[in-house]
Design goal:
Layout lengths: L1 H4 L9 E7 L6 E6 L39 H12 L9 H9 L1 E2 L2 H9 L1 H4 L3 H7 L12 E2 L2 H13 L2 H4 L1 H11 L13 H5 L4 E4 L1 E5 L2 E5 L6 H12 L21 H21 L13 H4 L2 H8 L31 E7 L5 E7 L8 E2 L6 E2 L46 E3 L3 H5 L1
Organism: Mycobacteroides abscessus 21
Pfam families: G_glu_transpept
Protein name: Gamma-glutamyltranspeptidase family protein
Amino acid sequence: MLGLVEPQSSGIGGGGFLVYYDAASGAVQTYDGREVAPAAATENYLRWVDDADRTAPRPDVRSSGRSIGVPGILRMLHDVHAEHGAAPWRELFTPAVQLADDGFEISPRLAAAITDSAASLALDPEADLYLLNTDGSAKPAGTKITNPAYAKTLGAVAADGPDAFYRGAIAEAIVAAAADTSSGRTPSLMTTADLSGYTAKRRAALCTTYRDHEICGMPAPSSGGIAVAATLGILQNFPMASFRPTDIDLDGGKPTVDGVHYIAEAERLAYADRDKYVADTDFVALPGNSPDTLLNPTYLAGRARLISGDTTMGVAKPGEFNIPASAAVSTPEHGTSQVTVVDARATRRRSPRRWSQHSARSTWWTGSSSTISSPTSRPSPWVKTGSRSPTGCNQENAPVARWRPPWFSNAPNPASAARCSWHSARRAAR
């Protein structure tokens, strides 16, 4: 559904993570359905066109075909459904198919994204017809649009499973769109074999403690899990209950100055380590070959001592572990959708679905009117991961919505389950 009504941020052409908590057993399992680089990608894939043409991909790396990863969200969701689903797979698509055929009104948020990206969307005939008026202006909020091609695509996946997407005509259309060289764009090297060979991964959850809470989230290649765990580990060294918000309500209450300060400073330190050391552990080892090094209580206590209660540290420096690390450029991101589902048994499924760029950096494939996510994001050593919302909060591991953040309490929250899903520290201070 989100791929239909907010195609700038969600969709079947992207990737995602999912954290599954079983209320009966207390078990936590995570699923990795993030995009991967094509098999033909080399360490210079995002750096230059090829060894003979050592110029940057055109028009730039993010707008080129090189930024398109092999999508993984459908394969991952199908795996999760096979293990834990209750409703028939086919029925899951019925509401979105019906709305795509019947039409929906463009939301103000989508309208703003279309306006911002109108020039880029005009370069693609499918996007132009779907989202722009005949004079090239963005269709305004409230305009009713239909998407029968998307309905047809979802109908095929509903009937035949993810193979309808990863094999056959749809896969061929995706590869063709990614390889498009119109306007001088550098093409992707994705093949139909990359799509048919894609597999999602099951990974052990990353679990740590915060005071009397057990906190479980997504491990690498998600960078947010370690960052949030490190933030909480640093905050554990301060009397956060003294800085709790006032006038607590469903929105979290009114944050205190000290609460915001200590959370922000802890995040600076955690993000500095995340940016330097956390990549895809299938290719790049963490310090000590384990998240335990970055999350060691003694190490985090030392990081906490860098925080002053009176002044900000400014740009935080990462800790030193005497290992080489690739430099990474910090850029704002705007592309993750967060979905949380809680069933009648209190079993939780939390899935951040990554759409790495807005429409201006998306590619449309003929026959589906849906976007392909960019950039690649199960990184090799040269690719930096991480997604930030416009507020600067890492949303790859955004929290299950809860009414009371545990880090402001020295005692267990009686309204909380024994296992907590990740909370964003900045959300708590909001």
